[in-house]
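SAMPLE LOG
Freezer: B-3
Tube label: C17
Construct: single chain, 69 aa
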Amino acid sequence: MSKSGKMALIFGGFVTAVAAAFYPIFFHPLMHKDDYREVQKINRTGINQADVQPVGVKIWSDPFKPASK
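STRUCTURE (predicted):
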């Protein structure tokens, strides 16, 4: 195999590895928003946000809520 062919395989392998790493971190949650909303709803039940947040830190909100204009 020529030198340029090996370089193309190495580069292609690197791109594939990066894409495989980003899928579960970024693309899966982006495509399954409803599942993640349900999980957060279950996980956050019974938690008083003001009790768990340190003083001076903004209380967490729904990350999926559209920004108000």
